[in-house]
Every structure is written in C-alpha cells, then in structure tokens.
C-alpha cells in the first residue's frame, strides 16, 4: 500500500468526534460539527480528499479501484498487536471491506493517456451532478462551502434508445417549443402536464386553493406511472418524465422487477426539483450543474470549511484498531497506523471500515454491542450499482460537450431492467484534456454480469470500441455510422456495493455512494446523523450569507442566494 | 418585465420619491427659464442633461437639446471632430436616460433624431439594442428602433428574420418578435426573395407557429401570428372579378314600366321607367379605375358609348368592390341584343393596395327588349301571398348567378393544401375557445377556396356548430360569434343551387320578381351578397339585423322586408341609398328611435344644422322636423319609395308620418294605408 512517512504525534489526543473517511457525508458532518463548536479530528487513509467521492488521475483511480476490490489480495496486515493489557482498554483490529468487484480496466492508447495522465480528474462514483435546487446546494450556501467550488452547466440532456439516436429532453417551455421530434399533440400534452404540476405546486405553497388546480389526494397516493397514464400521456412522454426528469431507475411498468414503485406524490416532488432547478440561477442553462475539476471538489469544499472552524485534518492515516473500555465495553478511542492512540466521545467511520469476524468471537456481549454497526451483515437486498468510465476522443453528440443521456428501461435491449444514465463531461470542466471527453455510466443491478452487460450495451451504442477483430469484420458495412461515433481510448468497468449508513450511538458508519444522480440522499443521511449526534442544534447557524462574493466567470454558474 | 404584480410602496420609498419631486421641480423651473430665454450655454445644456437623467420623460427637455445642438452646429459646423463629439454626447445622454427608463418615448425618438443627422457611427446601435432586448425581449420601443437601425445599416432582412427566430426560440411569448417576423416576411415575400416563395415559405411558417400554439395554447402571441398567416394564405394580391350581373350566358328581359303578358317567363325581367338597366361588377377586393376605357362593352344597344361607372361605397371613396353602370335601352323597340363585356383588357383597374387587375375577363349575355303591354299598377306589395315556389329542378338558377369564383390563373393549389393541413391540425385543440374559433375560421377559409362541387359545402354544419358552442361558452363575445354564424349560414345557403333554390320564390304580382326569403333565421349580419346580385325582392324579416350593410351591391333590389329586426336608426339603413330601384321598404317593428343620438352633447344639434338641407324644399319649409329626423331625412330623401312600413317603431307617429310624406312625395302606401293624393 502506501508508505506512511513518520508523522509527528497528534496533539491534542482527545476529541469530541473522530471521523474517518473524507467522502461527501463525512465531510458535511465534519463541517457541521466543527461549525457548532465540537473538536473534530478528520482522518483519511488515502493521500487525497473525497474517499469514494474523489476525482483522481487515471493511474490513481486504477490503483484505488484495484486496492479496494474483492479480486485484489487483502493488504498485508501487520501481525496483530498483542492486546495492550497495560491499559484499561481492549483493542479490536479493523478490517477493510472491499466496495468494488468485477474491476476491469483497459487502455487502448496508452502513450497518449500517459502523456496527459495528470490532466484527468476522473470521478470514482460518476455519473453524478447537482440539481440547482438540490439540498446539497442549500447546504453549501448555508455553510459557506460554495466559496471553494465553481460550477458549470450541463448543456443538454438526452434520451437514447437502441437506434443510437439521441433525442433532446423537452424539459422547459422553450425546449418543448423547439423540439423537432415531438408531435404537436405531444407538445400540447407535455406542456399541459407541466402546467398542472406547476399549478399544483403553486397551490401547495400559497394556500390559494380556489384559483389553482390541485392534484387530488387519491391521485397523490397512486403510482406515478398510473397517474401519467390517467393524464393520457403517450408512452414516449411518460418515459421521458419518469426516467429523464424524475430520474427513476426501475421499470415502473414492470411490477415484478421494479424495486421502487414511485408514488405520484414523490413523482411530483422530483418534477418540482427539476422545474425549480431550471430557473434557480440566472446564469445556469438548465437544471443541472457540475463542479469544475470534478465532483471531488465537493467533499473538499466542506473539509476546507471544517478546517476554517478548527477541524484537524490528517490524510494518509488509516486507523488500525478500536479501543474499547475493558469494564463497560464502551468506545474509548482509536489506534492510528502511526501507533498513536487517540480518544474521542464519538466515532464516525467510512463504510469500508469493519471488524473482522474472528476478532468478534473473543469479545464480550457489551463490546459486541458497541461494535454492532461495524459487523458486516448479510445483505438482504443484493442491489448494487455498476459503473463505467470511458475516455473518448470526440463527442457523442456534435456541438455538445457536457450532457446527460438516459436510456430508459428496455430501451437498449428487452431484458434491460433499469435505466442507464450516461454523462459526458469535457475539458471545459477541467476533467480531461481538450478534444477528449470523459463518459460516466451507471445502472443499478442485482449481479455483476447483468450490470456490466447493460453498461457495455450503452457504450456500444454511443462509442466505437477499438477492438481490432471487430474493426475488421464490419468495417465495410458499418463504416458510415461508425465514423461519426467517438473512439474509445480508456475504459474502466466496476460494480460497487451499496452499503447503508448506520447510527450506533458512539460509533456510526456512513453509507457508500448511492446509485442516484445527485447527492440528496447522501446529504440527507448525513444531516440525519448530525441530528442524532448533536440533538436539535441548528446546522451552520452563523454562516448564513457570510463571505458571499459575486464573481462573474466565463460560463460558470454562481450559486448565490 | 411582464406579469409582475404591483406592490404598494413603502414609506421610505414614498419619502424618496417626494425628495426626488422637489429636486425635479427646481431643476424643471430653471430649465424652463433657460428654454424660454433660448440660453444654450454649456451650463444650461448640462442642466437639461441632469433633468433628463432623472426624468427621461421630459419631452420639452429633449426638444430643447435638439435646438441647442442645432444652435451649436450653426456656429462650429466647420470642425467635423467637434460635430461628432456633440452628437456622441447626445447619444450618451440618451443611453443614460434609457437606463433609467427604457420605455421612454422621448429618449428613443431623440436617439433616432441624432442618428438621422448622419454624424454618428451606427455600428454600436445593434449591440446596445441586444442589451436592451435581453433585459426585456418584448420591449416594442427597442424593436421599433431596431427596424430603424436595420434600415440605416442596410442589414439584410434574412439576418433580421434569423434574429426573430432566436428570440422566439428563447421565449415564444413575444408579440414584438412575432410582429417583426410578419413585417420582415411580408417584405421578403413581396420581393420574391430567394427562398421566400409564398407556396414554400408560408407552410414552413405554419409549422413554426404550430409549435408555439400547441405547446401553450393559452399564450396569445402565436395565435396572432397564425391569424396573420391565414390572412396571407387567403389573400391573393391581384384583384379578381368574382361575380357580375347579368352573368355570363344569361338572358334578361327588359321592358318599360308596367307588366308583361308573358308572366311565366323563366328569365329575369327588368322593368324600368328610365329605360336603363344596371350592369354590376363585383370584385374580391376594393378596386379603383373602373371606367369606359378599362371595361369595354360591345352591343347594338344604342346610346351607351360614354358610360359612367360608379363605385358603390358608403365612404364616398373612389375604390369599391362593387361598380355599377347603367346601360340604356329603348323599350318601344323590341329586339334581341347580345352584349359582350371585357373587363381589364387595358390596364387601369388597381386595387386599394396597389395591385393591378391582371386577369382580363370576358362575358356575354343576351338582352330581350320587350314592349310593355299593360300599364303599371300602384298595387300594394304583400309579403304574405302571391309567391310561387321555385322549381328546384329547373336550370334557371344557373343562368341567374355565377355561383363559382370566376376562373383566374392564381396559385390556388398550395393555399388549399395549407388550409387543409391546418384544418386537420387544429381538430386537436378544438376544446378551447380560441381553438374552436380558429377551426371555424379555417373551415370557412377552406369552403371559400374549394372549387370541387363534390366536397363543397360539406363542412358548413360543423362551422355553424362551432359558432353555436362559442356563443354558449363565451358570452362576452357573443355578438361577434353571432355575426360569424350568420355569415357562415349565408355562405351555406349560397353554396349550391339546391340550397339556394329552397329560399327562392317568384312574386306573381310584379312580373315574376325573383324573391329570396331569408326570414326567421336569426341572422345578425348580411353576407354572400356577391352571389345574390340577381335578387329583386328580399325578405329578411324576423331576424336580428342591426344594419343593411352589404345590400348596396344588390342593385336590382326593388322590394325589401326588414320588419322585426333590430335596426336602431335610419343611419343603419344608409347603404340602401345606393339601391336606386328600391320601391318597397318594410322596416316595421324595429327599434328605430329607441336609442336616438343624444344631440345635446354636440355643438351642432344635428349633422344637418349648417349644410345643404337649407337649399332643399323640405328643409326650408320645416327645418324643425329635418333637424329632429335628420337620419331619416338623409336616407329617405335619396330613395324613390312607393311603399313604406314603419309601424312598430318608437319613431312612428303622426308627426313622423307627416314628415315622411314631405320627404317622399311619391309615396303611395304608408303602413298599409293608401295615401290620398
């Protein structure tokens, strides 16, 4: 692994809170806790910020995926130290859980990529964007973290299908007007539906029941897909609303495979998020924005905010063991890889940190109780998310650099159970060299094969695989269509476990990145944990509208209140 | 900029505006002194700058600046740099004023004035406009000024059209952008510019505006543009002759006053004391220049060398859709004559929009001149009996009326196709008021265009149903829908010989007059008159008519029944003054006199107070009555009535009756009573 250079011992050695891992949820918590006056030590075993939310160069990304995957041999752990009986503590060794499986990384033009290797900022948990009206944006504004990140708009969003054609998502009045693929009737129906949603939203915020149309309570509790049918929206429009605006994953028309059937109420909320996002910032083009230099900037911004408030940061510092009270079995502190023992009231851990089963057997019931959140449980729901990253030369759509593409369920092949989301980002976001783009793909899946199959299908729909055999066999026939597609330079495919966070009193575990497009559920879980840890203490109470500076930057989106 | 509710101002805002008012008042008074004393010093001009920066609406200050500039120019004209700097300063002041209020008329006008002097560069104007149009994309001042600048810079109309594209794509609720688009397209289409042939471009425009209308049917801007497009589709620039009387191939019988013995004649019989019959030309748009040189007539009828053509128009103008001349004949000389008429052989007939009548048309009819057998009788004309049903199977009607648009070479095909596809398209939106109205208008347009007998007239029921629904849905525009309903109904009646013949009769009493009975149909407006030029007797009783507008073209009309309608005054009958043959008029049971004009509100108690009537016999004898019944006087004086029914109106009574007798001395029957000599 990484050679840990000798660290000077940390001083002080006692904290209110120790947080391990610098992912989005951990960083939000660190910022919130430091801001409310708690003393916080924030550790990360990696030499970079962001943990599973980091943006990395291609070599760093490759080594991170390999070292955190099941296929890789477990890191050579130093022989367990004898329980330090000279103290009042018992120490329990920690084991790293692998989040990734089926990791497969291939490079097709190594020379070029090596030449530019440091100019990549590739996200580990893409595709992921921010809706302008997202809770995460509110939180950034509230905490002041917005001072450390700049955003740019995602220029366009499309819906794709097996024909390879990408159709614009008609998500606004102007977009519906301009859309060439909708019939006049479809334009009419879609806009009518948008108006209904808007009028419903207006009536629920203004308490003005008399003049505006409201959706009935009964409809609000019915499945969203049934409501759309009731509104006589044709299948094409329904699919756009469900998968490209409400960003649903599961096929809402298939009761057997659908793990999450959305209610109208939730559907309207998701549409509201999209609609409000469209108009929130005057210099944003659409509903979606993305941080320049990659999404790793987000956790980093919260960490900076935390540091300003006194949080102490140590990177490249894994913890090797937990220290428990011999008598009570309660949590006392951690032992760092440097050997130092640090104590705190509470501990928050990255989802990868677990307790080895063999060490559990020797513990008392009370001690087991303390560690309960760290014991890997048999997963009831085997849901995973498969992700893909492609570095391509050219763009999947002429004249568009940053774009979101959604393949609704069954749009690519009949057995496709979940929506596949693809996001293309360009050099304007400082994530790759000019003339290249980075494509992120993701879809939910039950097993690795199924997930990887879906991703490959979407990839072949969008880009040209430089497979020499392939190239020879159909070079004559498909030359015309292939010529327009961008060419693949580098590819990573992997499947990520979905681990839920858990509050355990003194020790809590954070969730892994989820399969969603935005950060809302991650931020929500962090805020919930904050509430459990801190009681009803107000979040970032003093930060509001401090240090707000308006900058007009070229094409950038200023997120200001 | 639009749709923002006005908020009540806060106390501090009110205080600020009061302080501003004080400052303005003192500035204003100083400025007025300068203006009055014609002081154009640097300080005085500076003062006006200050005033305008606070209040860009100060027109006087803008005018003062113009005077000041001209004053300065008269002294320093030799130095071009100085001249430029003066104008640049003016532009700067305007710009600041516009920042204060970009809807200031005075400021925009001043800018135009400065630029029209030709000393300033116009390169920056479009950039400035882009800025203002970004702030408020509908600002019509900016759009107006844009057209001015475009003309100055000679920017191509195609580029400007692209600009409206961009603005509309941005937000299609933009009346100004759609309007500018229609202005630019009109010009490009008129020039036949490359890629702007109407048959290609107008269908494209329909597609473009559909997106707006269907995306948001509640937004009016697209509908307005659609209406303009429909107009472009229907209107053919060159005027066309649409109907004439006597029609091509017809035979008419002419005689002197009185009755003919051959009373079963199937031909139109025209009796005249004066020995002349009208020749009517009806074109689809108002034209001027109809004369004996542009219309040639070949016949052996004598005395018709220098015919005088008269436009039939209420506005005393020299353009009209209807032109009439009177051909003379001698009834004592029975014979058969062929009359051949050529319209538009030599240029000169020009539409009011400046287009030449370019489709010469020729038609021929036969005139039988008969001798009068019996003396004329002064019998009363009855509207209840003496009518023979028209033989629907007879082909008579064909000879009476040209029911189809006279052939002409115009590019009809694309227009029909465009309307057909519109009709198909708007079926979807027929659940809204504007959708219904548009569909009804489109269907009407389609019926007007269709020339194929098989499909002609099949959609009228649908149109009438749409207007019925609209009347029920939208009471505030009831009268408009009612009028359109009447128009559609009359189009339907006149759309085929079969439907028309159901309303046609022969009146035995007077040489088998052709009588059209359209009574009890709740008509509120008259239409399709061009197809009814042959009618001699017209029954419009028991309808909801407010006016006789349109009837002036029916030059053969001698009996008219308007009883039980909603005529409110004699002014509403004004168009009848042109119908010289009219002998019998029934306006009983209307509202004449109910809503008299409140003359106390005017300086003159009637339009006749100081005009020609004093020369008139009646006027001299009884000025009081003429002043009181001036509207009746105006109309009745020009008519040659034998029979008048006026009972059942507010106005009727002994006084009015005696007045009528004075104005119409030849009257024989008044309210069913024969008048003693």
TrEMBL record, chain A:
Gene3D superfamilies: FAD/NAD(P)-binding domain, Guanine Nucleotide Dissociation Inhibitor, domain 1, Guanine Nucleotide Dissociation Inhibitor, domain 2. One of its GO terms (molecular function) is GDP-dissociation inhibitor activity. One of its GO terms (biological process) is vesicle-mediated transport. It comes from the Eukaryota. GO terms for cellular component: cytosol; nucleus; Rab-protein geranylgeranyltransferase complex. Keywords: Cytoplasm, GTPase activation. It is found in: Cytoplasm. Residues 541-561 are annotated as: Disordered. Residues 549-561 have a biased composition (Acidic residues). SUPFAM superfamilies: FAD-linked reductases, C-terminal domain (SSF54373), FAD/NAD(P)-binding domain (SSF51905). Belongs to the Rab GDI family. Substrate-binding subunit of the Rab geranylgeranyltransferase (GGTase) complex. Binds unprenylated Rab proteins. This is Rab escort protein 1. It comes from Arabidopsis lyrata subsp. lyrata (Lyre-leaved rock-cress).
Automatic annotation (TrEMBL), chain B:
InterPro entries: Leu-rich_rpt, LRR_dom_sf, Prenyl_trans_a. One of its GO terms (cellular component) is Rab-protein geranylgeranyltransferase complex. One of its GO terms (biological process) is prenylation. It catalyses: geranylgeranyl diphosphate + L-cysteinyl-[protein] = S-geranylgeranyl-L-cysteinyl-[protein] + diphosphate. Belongs to the protein prenyltransferase subunit alpha family. Catalyzes the transfer of a geranyl-geranyl moiety from geranyl-geranyl pyrophosphate to cysteines occuring in specific C-terminal amino acid sequences. This is Geranylgeranyl transferase type-2 subunit alpha.
